[in-house]
């Protein structure tokens, strides 16, 4: 099998399959490859050309979601504005990739934890961001970086759950998430 990264049409098809798999499997981990193919707008044989076995697709999803996390972190522009503003942008970006994050966190067969552990840049970026917030006075200095990161993930999970289980709108859930984050990290309490 060719291990070179696909380009052009092949790359778009592969990405469409992975995006569809995230969407479908996040709602039903037992969904069939036919369900994923239909969501991706391709035939089942096309999926098998890219991912010969279901396990190949699941393994690729962990790497795909990790790349989405990297891209979301870049889009958040962590060096712009105050640290609190950057943390809010990061929260919004991560909220948008919630299906993939929930899928990987909730299903060990999907997560490629080696990729996550071998790429500490995201955690280091968040740590630097919180430390900058301590210095610029926008994040409570009594809140260690690990605590703020855990808080961010907990709030995101609550927001995703609020949409899925409680029928909240995405806009409403992210608004509650950001409002709670803002109040939680504010210095001076």
Automatic annotation (TrEMBL):
Protein's UniProt keywords contain Ubl conjugation: no
DNA-binding region: 32-51
Keyword Transcription tagged: yes
Pfam families in alphabetical order: TetR_N
Keywords recorded for this protein, A-Z: DNA-binding, Transcription, Transcription regulation
Residue ranges constituting the HTH tetR-type domain according to the UniProt record: 11-69
InterPro entries (UniProt xref): Homeodomain-like_sf, HTH-type_TetR-like_transc_reg, HTH_TetR, Tet_transcr_reg_TetR-rel_C_sf
Top-rank taxon: Bacteria
Protein name per Swiss-Prot or TrEMBL: TetR/AcrR family transcriptional regulator
Native source species: Marinactinospora rubrisoli
